[in-house]
Design a protein that fits this description.
134 residues, 4 strands, 17% strand, alpha+beta, 3 helices
Length: 134
Amino acid sequence: MEFLKMKNRMFIKIFRELWDQKKYENIFYMQGNTDDLNLIDYNDYWDLVGLFFTDEEGYNRALFIPVPLLPKKYRGKIRDMAWEGKIFHCSRAWHEIPNNTYIKPDAYYPNFYFERISKKDIDNREEDHEEEQQ
């Protein structure tokens, strides 16, 4: 529990720094459901805010937090800015990509995520599984 509290504090600290410096290109609004962001009664329960940035040592970092955990003064503003195109608006599927170390969204939906697995990949997985059983 302490780890989550510390992670949320770190996210808010970095978020405020980026917000104050107007580095909106590092802030991403990840929409979790199919409703229109512009609706008055829009439910942001499944939405995430993602931060993609480079730390002091040059490593790429990505942090995520559910929108309902953002401070109230930012919650409405960030949704409006995403709707207006000032903050990159994309699907939450970018967060769900397995082994996502740092894949910065470049479109609303990650097309490569649902590409078919090749026959060669399936054969390699079956061979690995057979070796493990022996």
